[in-house]
What does this fold into?
Amino acid sequence: MYLLTGTRPVPVYTMTHLSQFNSSPLTLHLTAAKQVQIYLQRTKDRHLFYPSNNQLKMTAYMDGSCSNCLDTRQSICSYIFQLGNNTISWRSCKEWSVATSTCEAEYMALAMMTKHHLWLKLGTQELLKKDIPTALFWGSNGAIDVAYNPTLNNWLNHIDGAYHLTHEQIDQGTVSVMHVVLEENLADICTKGMMRSVNDHICSKIFGSKWERVLKI
It folds into this structure.
């Protein structure tokens, strides 16, 4: 878990799921944990790379998967933030409440990403004494439409007001939310298992040119 928090974003979904069974693991969970260790050993040459000429712009990718947990029916949401082309922050976790639709789960996840964006914005302002432009990328057109116009769907009226933070920030002009195709959404890797080809493509985006050089070797 220390490695995943500090340097290894890719297996974060697997560890988020396995950590739920820390108190009473079964043989199945221990076998899966060993598979994670094998993966970390075989991919130890993958490094996050931060060049000195990094462009000062921030991008964020978000994904939400509805009712992933079969026990609680809670959804899994995740985000990955990059400064320039370099990954600086990531997370995968369960949402606090049960969503009644995929659009609702993704809208709630969008609020979580917006909160983290505001925290990073305050940090960069303190360090750099200037604002860094930020673009939020999301794979759900429905959630984006609701973020720009929460009254668009009356069946979302039951959502707690805290989840409308993204709409407030859009109105204030501090963030913009744009659609991204599935294959380019880096946060997808933190909410579900993926095909090997898609996984490798996203890894090249997360780890940057350093990982691409490792592949060529």
Summary: Confidence is low (pLDDT under 50) at residues 211-217. Helices lie at 2-6, 12-18, 27-42, 102-128, 141-148, 165-172, 196-207, 209-216.
